[in-house]
Design brief:
Layout lengths: L2 H6 L5 H22 L15 E4 L13 E12 L8 E6 L2 E7 L9 E4 L7 E6 L17 E4 L4 E4 L6 E2 L2 E2 L2 E3 L4 E8 L2 E7 L7 E10 L1
Parallel strand pairs: 1-14, 2-6
Antiparallel strand pairs: 2-3, 3-4, 4-5, 5-6, 7-8, 7-14, 8-11, 9-10, 11-12, 12-13, 13-14
């Protein structure tokens, strides 16, 4: 229907005015619905009240942003499990697994990666024997590397076998010996399910900060 042509022919009848108004309202509402995405809470997304820290072991120019604890040699064989991202790898030094290990933005030869047990820890610089694995694809499953609870306790993603309490797999290990799993968004904050050592029930706690890679 061409509204301009109708207007050019004289006054629009009241009934036709109502039809045009209804069409306009439907169009506006449809546009609003298409521009608003309703998503359920996911482990990789923080709520508005939960702060997100984007971790980078290197500055864009290639300089380290973290302090160094040691320099060792080893190999990397796959992408990181703890901090899935295109520049993070799972490596080993002898029989010790290091995950995640971050590659610089412009790797030189021999490649050296920064391995950290947590976003707030010092790095072990691993001189890699051989090449790095292919980067993770954009479709890789993403999750926060670590988070902090409202009581100040910090928890880091586990990469091995994880415990289960009340049917919930607790994929994060906390600095106080407890285990946790990210939960749902309540109000403006992401929550976590928390279980101290030996617990048979879960406690719900607020997540104040998440770190992702």
């Amino acid at each position: 229907m061409d509204v301009g042509e109708i207007r050019g022919r004289g006054p629009v009848a009241p009934a036709l005015r109502l039809v045009l108004l209804a069409i306009t309202l439907v169009t506006v509402l449809a546009g609003c619905a298409s521009s608003t995405k309703h998503r359920g809470p996911t482990a990789g997304a923080a709520a508005p009240g939960t702060a997100t820290v984007h971790f980078h072991a290197y500055a864009p120019g290639g300089d380290l942003t973290v302090s160094v604890a040691d320099v060792v040699r080893g190999q990397c064989w796959t992408n990181s499990i703890a901090a899935p991202s295109t520049d993070a790898y799972r490596c080993f030094q002898g029989n010790k697994i290091l995950d995640p290990c971050f590659a610089p933005p412009h790797p030189s030869s021999p490649v050296q990666v920064a391995c950290l047990s947590a976003p707030w820890s010092r790095a072990v610089m691993l001189q890699v024997s051989g090449k790095l694995p292919p980067p993770a694809s954009d479709g890789a499953v993403s999750r926060p590397w670590a988070f902090q609870l409202s009581n100040g306790i910090r928890c880091v993603a586990s990469t091995g076998t994880v415990p289960a309490v009340a049917g919930v797999n607790l994929g994060y290990h906390c600095v106080d010996g407890a285990d946790a799993a990210l939960g749902v968004v309540i109000g403006s904050h992401l929550t976590a399910q928390y279980a101290p050592p030996g617990a048979t029930a879960l406690s719900r706690m607020t997540v104040t900060t998440v770190w992702d890679a």
